[in-house]
Write a structure and sequence with these properties.
This protein is 85% helix and 0% strand. The radius of gyration is 21 Å and the shape is globular. It is mainly alpha-helical. About 2% of the residues have low confidence.
Length: 402
């Protein structure tokens, strides 16, 4: 037995729970991503590229996530969760190395394309599905979601602080974080016993990628929930565009106040996903929570632009953050329960890819509507779209009861 294997075995004996380690892994991954994201507009400017070039960077990442999230999820169904998690983290490391060394727009674009291939969130959710019972599923996935939200709070703060030293500084720290992440997975994340048994069997979910995608979308419950997820993330992606513009228009917010808004939303989602979602699921059930989450989202979007009052703004923001937090947790939990064990990685990867691709038209549409129609119509546009998600949620709730 090698020294590395012996060391790993000794560490595993004293390891924390896999759920906790996965949450830390997602937190570190999201922190690295959050450090880089706010710097992209300024990095692009150094290469004298315009807004269209920045849009291409954002869109390229989303498109790659859309393609590769279900593919990596499917690979994890066949070869195991742990190897795919490790591979995804190493791909992230490569993307941050390119980001740090980029001396042209082409290399910067290549770094974002490679970063989009690394899609461990869906695989992490599939791992949670492997090791939790159906009653514990939403709580486990909620902890992953809370870690994701915490990373998005921490990342921009660290990235902004290091950015004064140059773009290389946050890039180097992101590289160190991803390597630390790899070590966490290597030493503390064993392959789930349930999945070890399942992965030895040949999957019955045959066919090519497009056929599997079609099968997922045409399944009565899962197809509806994926549509709910698409609409929810499309609308939520308008928030980073609309709320800063509303804050500047109504309350003369600057960069500090806008940052505090994002931190407030992040804290709401951490508390909801990390502490409350399990209790809410036991009390209401996932289907009713899905309806409640979409209803909170609609109410917040309708209310926020109507009255230029800071208390109304905070109440609306709480509704939007809570509705989003509920949907981000309940939807993957619901999908995992309605999917066979040997399809969970693919289905949760598909859910992740739908979430990512929905953000591209969402952010573009928000800016366009705000510029040409004004504050109130831009928020009402999102609220009206959310009514579609609410109607589909009611339908799913009714179908489950049948």
């Amino acid at each position: 037995m090698s020294d590395v294997t012996m060391l790993r075995n000794k560490l595993i004996r004293f390891r924390p729970s896999p759920t906790f380690v996965l949450a830390v892994t997602i937190f570190i991954d999201t922190t690295g991503y959050g450090m880089i994201l706010p710097l992209l507009p300024f990095y692009v400017e150094t290469f004298q590229a315009g807004a269209a070039a920045l849009g291409i960077l954002v869109a390229s990442f989303a498109i790659m996530q859309f393609i590769f999230a279900p593919i990596l999820g499917r690979i994890s169904d066949n070869v195991g969760r742990r190897p795919v998690l490790s591979l995804s983290i190493l791909i992230s490391t490569a993307s941050f190395i390119l980001f740090t060394l980029a001396n042209s727009y082409f290399l910067l674009l290549l770094s974002r394309i490679i970063a989009g291939v690394a899609t461990e969130a869906g695989v992490a959710q599939a791992y949670i599905a492997d090791i939790t019972s159906k009653k514990e599923r939403s709580t486990g996935i909620g902890k992953i979601g809370a870690a994701h939200g915490a990373g998005f709070i921490t990342g921009p703060v660290i990235g902004g602080a290091l950015g004064i030293y140059g773009f290389w500084a946050p890039g180097v720290v992101a590289i160190i974080l991803t390597l630390l992440n790899f070590l966490l997975v290597f030493f503390f994340i064993p392959e789930p016993n349930v999945h070890k048994h399942q992965s030895t069997n040949q999957s019955n979910f045959s066919g090519g990628y497009l056929r599997r995608l079609t099968n997922a979308l045409t399944k009565p419950l899962i197809g509806s929930v994926l549509a709910i997820n698409f609409v929810t993330f499309l609308v939520f992606s308008t928030i980073p565009v609309l709320i800063p513009l509303l804050g500047m228009s109504f309350f003369n917010f600057g960069s500090v106040e806008t940052s505090l808004v994002y931190i407030y939303v992040g804290v709401i989602q951490i508390v909801l996903q990390g502490l409350l979602i399990g209790r809410l699921t036991k009390k209401l059930g996932e289907e009713r929570l899905m309806v409640s989450g979409s209803l909170l989202f609609i109410t917040g979007l309708f209310l926020m632009p109507l009255i230029p009052n800071i208390m109304v703004f905070l109440i609306s923001l709480t509704m939007i953050g809570s509705g989003s937090g509920i949907m981000r947790t309940i939807i993957p939990s619901f999908i995992s329960k309605k999917s066979p064990v040997d399809e969970q990685g693919f289905m949760l990867g598909m859910n992740q890819s739908v979430s990512t691709i929905a953000q591209v038209p969402g952010s573009l549409t928000a800016g366009f509507v705000f510029e040409y129609a004004g504050i109130v119509p831009s928020f009402f546009f999102g609220a009206i779209l959310s009514i579609v998600a609410f109607g589909l949620s009611v339908r799913v709730c009714y179908q489950v009861k049948q």
